[in-house]
Amino acid sequence: MIRRLPPPPRSVCFDVPDGHGVIEVIGDESGSLLLLAGDPAVLEANDGCGSLGWLAARAGTGGPGLSEVKYLTEWLGAPGLVPDPQNGHAEPPDPQCLRPLLSLLAPGRYVMTAALAPHHLRVVHPRARRVQSWYADEELALVTTDAWPPRDHRAVRGYGDRIRAGGGLPALVALFPTAESSVGHLLDGHHKLAAYERAGARPLVIRLAPQEPRPFRRDDVDRARAAFSEGAPRPQRDVLGGVFSSLRTESV
Hints:
Helices cover 24% and strands 29% of the residues. The chain has helices spanning 73-77, 99-102, 153-165, 190-199, 218-229, 234-250, and strands spanning 12-16, 23-28, 31-36, 39-46, 53-58, 89-90, 108-116, 121-124, 131-135, 140-143, 171-175, 183-188, 204-210. The mean pLDDT is 86.
Protein backbone atom coordinates (compact mmCIF):
# COMPACT_ATOMS: atom_id res chain seq x y z
CA MET A 1 0.00 0.00 0.00
CA ILE A 2 1.41 3.38 -1.04
CA ARG A 3 1.51 5.89 1.79
CA ARG A 4 0.41 9.36 0.75
CA LEU A 5 2.40 12.30 2.00
CA PRO A 6 0.40 14.89 3.94
CA PRO A 7 -0.38 18.06 2.03
CA PRO A 8 1.85 21.05 2.76
CA PRO A 9 0.43 23.69 5.11
CA ARG A 10 -1.48 26.50 3.46
CA SER A 11 0.69 29.57 3.02
CA VAL A 12 0.02 33.27 2.74
CA CYS A 13 2.32 35.64 0.85
CA PHE A 14 2.49 39.28 1.85
CA ASP A 15 4.65 42.32 1.21
CA VAL A 16 6.52 44.41 3.75
CA PRO A 17 7.25 47.51 1.67
CA ASP A 18 8.11 49.81 4.56
CA GLY A 19 9.93 47.50 6.96
CA HIS A 20 12.44 49.16 9.28
CA GLY A 21 15.02 46.40 8.87
CA VAL A 22 15.40 45.86 12.62
CA ILE A 23 15.11 42.09 11.99
CA GLU A 24 16.60 40.37 8.95
CA VAL A 25 17.60 36.82 8.13
CA ILE A 26 20.03 35.84 5.38
CA GLY A 27 21.16 32.44 4.11
CA ASP A 28 19.47 29.23 3.05
CA GLU A 29 18.81 25.66 4.24
CA SER A 30 22.53 25.11 4.92
CA GLY A 31 22.79 27.99 7.38
CA SER A 32 21.48 31.42 8.26
CA LEU A 33 22.46 34.59 10.06
CA LEU A 34 20.01 36.67 12.10
CA LEU A 35 20.74 40.39 11.96
CA LEU A 36 19.37 42.77 14.59
CA ALA A 37 19.56 46.43 13.62
CA GLY A 38 22.03 45.36 10.93
CA ASP A 39 24.45 43.65 13.32
CA PRO A 40 25.14 39.88 13.29
CA ALA A 41 23.38 38.36 16.31
CA VAL A 42 22.71 34.62 15.90
CA LEU A 43 24.27 32.15 13.48
CA GLU A 44 23.04 28.62 12.72
CA ALA A 45 24.70 26.38 10.16
CA ASN A 46 25.83 22.93 9.18
CA ASP A 47 29.15 22.42 10.95
CA GLY A 48 30.67 20.41 8.12
CA CYS A 49 31.53 17.53 10.50
CA GLY A 50 28.74 15.20 9.50
CA SER A 51 25.69 15.02 7.28
CA LEU A 52 23.39 15.98 10.17
CA GLY A 53 25.73 18.02 12.36
CA TRP A 54 24.61 21.57 13.14
CA LEU A 55 25.69 24.42 15.36
CA ALA A 56 24.36 27.73 16.62
CA ALA A 57 26.31 30.67 18.05
CA ARG A 58 25.42 34.00 19.60
CA ALA A 59 27.42 37.21 19.31
CA GLY A 60 28.03 39.83 21.98
CA THR A 61 28.41 39.72 25.73
CA GLY A 62 24.67 39.55 26.39
CA GLY A 63 21.97 37.72 24.50
CA PRO A 64 20.06 39.94 22.08
CA GLY A 65 16.46 40.32 23.12
CA LEU A 66 13.66 41.27 20.78
CA SER A 67 11.90 43.55 23.23
CA GLU A 68 10.28 45.47 20.38
CA VAL A 69 7.85 42.65 19.70
CA LYS A 70 6.69 42.08 23.27
CA TYR A 71 3.46 43.99 22.78
CA LEU A 72 2.33 41.23 20.42
CA THR A 73 2.23 38.79 23.30
CA GLU A 74 -1.43 39.34 24.20
CA TRP A 75 -2.72 38.56 20.69
CA LEU A 76 -0.35 35.62 20.23
CA GLY A 77 -1.54 34.22 23.55
CA ALA A 78 -4.82 33.28 21.88
CA PRO A 79 -4.73 34.05 18.13
CA GLY A 80 -7.71 31.82 17.36
CA LEU A 81 -5.81 29.46 15.03
CA VAL A 82 -7.29 25.95 14.94
CA PRO A 83 -4.92 23.16 13.83
CA ASP A 84 -6.39 20.38 11.70
CA PRO A 85 -6.62 17.25 13.89
CA GLN A 86 -5.29 15.11 11.05
CA ASN A 87 -2.19 17.00 9.89
CA GLY A 88 -1.73 19.78 12.46
CA HIS A 89 -1.96 22.55 9.88
CA ALA A 90 -3.83 25.77 10.66
CA GLU A 91 -5.11 28.59 8.52
CA PRO A 92 -2.44 31.33 8.60
CA PRO A 93 -3.53 34.50 10.36
CA ASP A 94 -4.20 37.79 8.62
CA PRO A 95 -0.77 39.45 8.25
CA GLN A 96 -2.29 42.64 9.65
CA CYS A 97 -2.55 40.89 13.02
CA LEU A 98 1.25 40.64 13.05
CA ARG A 99 1.83 44.15 11.74
CA PRO A 100 3.82 45.38 14.78
CA LEU A 101 6.32 42.57 14.19
CA LEU A 102 6.25 42.63 10.40
CA SER A 103 7.08 46.34 10.36
CA LEU A 104 10.43 45.45 11.97
CA LEU A 105 11.44 43.09 9.17
CA ALA A 106 13.61 43.99 6.22
CA PRO A 107 11.50 45.16 3.27
CA GLY A 108 10.47 42.39 0.89
CA ARG A 109 7.93 39.66 0.22
CA TYR A 110 7.41 36.95 2.82
CA VAL A 111 5.66 33.59 3.12
CA MET A 112 3.72 32.65 6.26
CA THR A 113 2.36 29.29 7.45
CA ALA A 114 0.94 28.08 10.75
CA ALA A 115 1.03 24.53 12.08
CA LEU A 116 1.74 22.42 15.11
CA ALA A 117 5.42 21.61 15.42
CA PRO A 118 6.42 18.02 14.68
CA HIS A 119 6.72 15.64 17.60
CA HIS A 120 10.51 15.79 17.41
CA LEU A 121 11.39 19.41 18.19
CA ARG A 122 14.75 20.69 19.43
CA VAL A 123 15.25 23.96 21.29
CA VAL A 124 18.76 25.40 20.90
CA HIS A 125 20.00 28.17 23.20
CA PRO A 126 23.45 29.47 22.23
CA ARG A 127 25.15 31.63 24.84
CA ALA A 128 27.28 34.66 24.07
CA ARG A 129 30.34 33.72 22.00
CA ARG A 130 29.84 30.02 22.65
CA VAL A 131 28.96 27.35 20.14
CA GLN A 132 25.99 25.06 20.75
CA SER A 133 26.14 21.96 18.58
CA TRP A 134 23.63 19.17 18.03
CA TYR A 135 22.92 16.18 15.86
CA ALA A 136 19.93 17.14 13.75
CA ASP A 137 17.79 14.04 14.04
CA GLU A 138 14.63 16.14 14.47
CA GLU A 139 12.33 17.66 11.91
CA LEU A 140 12.52 21.14 13.44
CA ALA A 141 14.94 23.13 15.60
CA LEU A 142 14.18 26.55 17.08
CA VAL A 143 17.08 28.82 18.08
CA THR A 144 16.22 31.11 20.99
CA THR A 145 16.82 34.86 20.77
CA ASP A 146 16.02 35.74 24.38
CA ALA A 147 16.60 34.37 27.89
CA TRP A 148 16.17 30.61 28.19
CA PRO A 149 14.59 29.21 30.20
CA PRO A 150 12.31 32.24 30.57
CA ARG A 151 12.50 34.12 33.84
CA ASP A 152 8.78 34.92 34.25
CA HIS A 153 7.55 31.67 35.77
CA ARG A 154 4.07 33.09 36.36
CA ALA A 155 3.65 33.71 32.63
CA VAL A 156 4.81 30.18 31.85
CA ARG A 157 2.30 28.73 34.33
CA GLY A 158 -0.48 30.84 32.86
CA TYR A 159 0.21 29.61 29.33
CA GLY A 160 0.48 26.06 30.64
CA ASP A 161 -2.98 26.29 32.20
CA ARG A 162 -4.37 27.54 28.88
CA ILE A 163 -2.70 24.74 26.92
CA ARG A 164 -3.98 22.03 29.26
CA ALA A 165 -7.47 23.49 29.20
CA GLY A 166 -7.62 23.16 25.41
CA GLY A 167 -9.42 25.60 23.17
CA GLY A 168 -7.42 28.58 21.91
CA LEU A 169 -3.74 27.66 21.70
CA PRO A 170 -0.97 30.27 22.12
CA ALA A 171 1.33 30.70 19.12
CA LEU A 172 5.06 31.15 18.64
CA VAL A 173 6.59 33.18 15.80
CA ALA A 174 9.81 32.01 14.15
CA LEU A 175 11.78 33.43 11.23
CA PHE A 176 13.39 31.00 8.77
CA PRO A 177 15.86 31.76 5.96
CA THR A 178 13.69 29.80 3.51
CA ALA A 179 10.26 28.20 3.65
CA GLU A 180 11.91 24.75 3.51
CA SER A 181 14.43 25.35 6.32
CA SER A 182 14.31 23.05 9.35
CA VAL A 183 16.05 25.55 11.66
CA GLY A 184 14.44 28.87 12.57
CA HIS A 185 15.04 31.82 14.89
CA LEU A 186 12.39 32.17 17.61
CA LEU A 187 11.28 35.81 17.50
CA ASP A 188 8.43 35.65 20.01
CA GLY A 189 7.08 32.94 22.29
CA HIS A 190 9.81 31.85 24.68
CA HIS A 191 7.39 31.67 27.63
CA LYS A 192 4.82 29.91 25.47
CA LEU A 193 7.40 27.40 24.27
CA ALA A 194 8.45 26.65 27.85
CA ALA A 195 4.79 26.09 28.74
CA TYR A 196 4.31 23.71 25.83
CA GLU A 197 7.37 21.75 26.93
CA ARG A 198 6.10 21.48 30.50
CA ALA A 199 2.71 20.32 29.23
CA GLY A 200 4.30 17.78 26.89
CA ALA A 201 2.39 19.29 23.96
CA ARG A 202 3.37 20.24 20.41
CA PRO A 203 3.61 24.05 20.07
CA LEU A 204 1.69 26.01 17.48
CA VAL A 205 4.28 27.79 15.30
CA ILE A 206 3.73 30.67 12.89
CA ARG A 207 6.57 30.43 10.37
CA LEU A 208 7.85 33.46 8.46
CA ALA A 209 10.36 33.25 5.61
CA PRO A 210 11.48 35.54 2.78
CA GLN A 211 9.95 34.40 -0.49
CA GLU A 212 13.29 35.15 -2.18
CA PRO A 213 16.05 34.30 0.31
CA ARG A 214 19.05 36.63 0.44
CA PRO A 215 22.32 34.69 0.11
CA PHE A 216 25.41 35.41 2.16
CA ARG A 217 27.64 38.08 0.70
CA ARG A 218 31.35 38.41 1.32
CA ASP A 219 30.91 41.34 3.70
CA ASP A 220 28.24 39.38 5.65
CA VAL A 221 30.73 36.60 6.29
CA ASP A 222 33.48 39.04 7.26
CA ARG A 223 31.22 40.87 9.73
CA ALA A 224 29.96 37.61 11.18
CA ARG A 225 33.49 36.29 11.59
CA ALA A 226 34.44 39.39 13.59
CA ALA A 227 31.25 39.36 15.69
CA PHE A 228 31.37 35.68 16.66
CA SER A 229 35.08 34.96 16.86
CA GLU A 230 36.59 37.97 18.62
CA GLY A 231 37.72 37.05 22.12
CA ALA A 232 36.37 33.51 21.84
CA PRO A 233 38.26 30.44 23.10
CA ARG A 234 40.45 28.80 20.49
CA PRO A 235 38.39 25.63 19.98
CA GLN A 236 35.31 27.71 19.14
CA ARG A 237 37.21 29.83 16.63
CA ASP A 238 38.32 26.63 14.91
CA VAL A 239 34.74 25.36 14.64
CA LEU A 240 33.35 28.68 13.44
CA GLY A 241 36.31 29.13 11.12
CA GLY A 242 35.31 26.01 9.24
CA VAL A 243 31.73 27.24 8.96
CA PHE A 244 32.78 30.68 7.74
CA SER A 245 35.12 29.14 5.18
CA SER A 246 32.23 27.08 3.87
CA LEU A 247 29.91 30.08 3.77
CA ARG A 248 32.51 32.13 1.94
CA THR A 249 32.69 29.59 -0.90
CA GLU A 250 28.93 29.96 -1.34
CA SER A 251 28.73 33.73 -0.84
CA VAL A 252 28.19 36.20 -3.65
